[in-house]
Amino acid sequence: MSNLEVAPREAVCAGDATAGPVHELMDGRDVVLGGTRGMAVTRTLPNRDRRMVGAWCFLDAYGPATHDMRVPPHPHTGLQTVSWLLAGELLHRDSLGSQQLIRPGQLNLMTAGRAIAHSEESTVDTTLHGVQLWVALPDSDRQGEPAFAHHPDLPVVTDNGLTATVLIGQFADVVSPARAYTPIVGAEVTVDGGAGARLPLEPDFEYAVLCLAGEAEVDGVPLAPGPLLYLGTGRTAMAMSGSARLLLLGGEPFEERIVMWWNFVGRSHDEIVADREDWMAGRRFGPVVGYEGDPLPAPELPTTTLKARGRQR
Ligand code: MN
After folding, report:
1. What is the 126 CA–ligand 1 centroid distance (Å)?
2. Quick check: 108 pLDDT over 90?
3. CA–CA separation, 250 vs 14, rounded Å?
4. What is the distance between the alpha carbons of residues 72 and 107, in angstroms, rounded to a whole number?
5. Domain ranges of the chain
6. pLDDT 10s digits, 44-86
7. What is the CA(198)–ligand 1 centre distance, in A?
8. What is the pTM of this model?
9. How far apart are CA 167 and CA 171, in angstroms?
């Protein structure tokens, strides 16, 4: 997924998790991605009220819709992309030479490190439903080698009236094979009718929940597809009920200050400028072989000097 905004703003994000349990419903913004029939997505991270949840720094949800998706080659730095489908099929290609179909229940995890480029396109004319997330890499790993991994078999936890597929990180003593660089969790949780589901949580993590389908009550808050429910820290468990598929995101509050612009995560404005210049000059990122069409040009950088600001407004 690429940020296709015409004039993306640069944002400085830093760890400022809310201590203790809270309930904040954060509405997303509607963004249109490329494609002949323009796939519409709802972006709930970064949000004007809160920019990160743990190291999770970007969340687009799309569908269910029959629109196609066609995101031309574009660059990334300093982050991992996490692709997860509920319906449909997407083809990923990247500058490492990877070419991978992803289907529902499978995880595509791309680690940009210092530089990678990729494209994503729907391959069949059918309902497309899924999420695309970014995870900020810590300073110790963000200049590392780029990598791509496809995980077709993820661990499933069935307990306490719920079923959870662990995409990345650890949930209820079950660890995903997907490589994470900070303590985080991403899990798809299914609750089915019962009122007694209890979600085990780490008190040091901050959490947020997005409803992917159906309707649920999460810690007493009614939740349907749309907004992201931010939950803060300080919980060891949480009640869930209803009939829904939910995306649970959590992690230790990310204390490093990051600078996000377009598809780059860096630590300074100058790094972002260099990322953009290298992409536009055809340096560092490498070509995405096999994609029919031109790569995405970077938008213009904002002319105003970046003003540092916190993750929470
Ligand atoms: Mn992307």
Report:
1. 22
2. yes
3. 16
4. 20
5. 17-251
6. 999 988 999 999 999 999 999 887 888 999 999 999 999 999 9
7. 34
8. 0.93
9. 9
What residues does 93 pair with on adjacent strands?
A: 99, 119
Q: Are the C-beta atoms of residues 157 and 170 closer than 8 Å to each other?
A: no
Distance 237 CA to ligand 1 centre (A): 33
Maximum C-alpha span of the chain: 56
ω into residue 64 within 30 of 0, thus cis? yes
How far apart are the CA of 129 and the centre of ligand 1, in A?
17
Helix boundaries (H) for the chain: 269-280
**Is 3.40.50.800 the CATH number for 17-251?**
no
What is the model's pLDDT at position 17? 75
How many angstroms separate the alpha carbon of residue 88 from the centre of ligand 1? 18
Span from the CA of 69 to the centroid of ligand 1 (angstroms): 12
Query: What does the H/E/C string look like for 226-275?
Result: CCEEEEECCCCEEEEEEEEEEEEEEECCCCCCEEEECCEEECCHHHHHHH
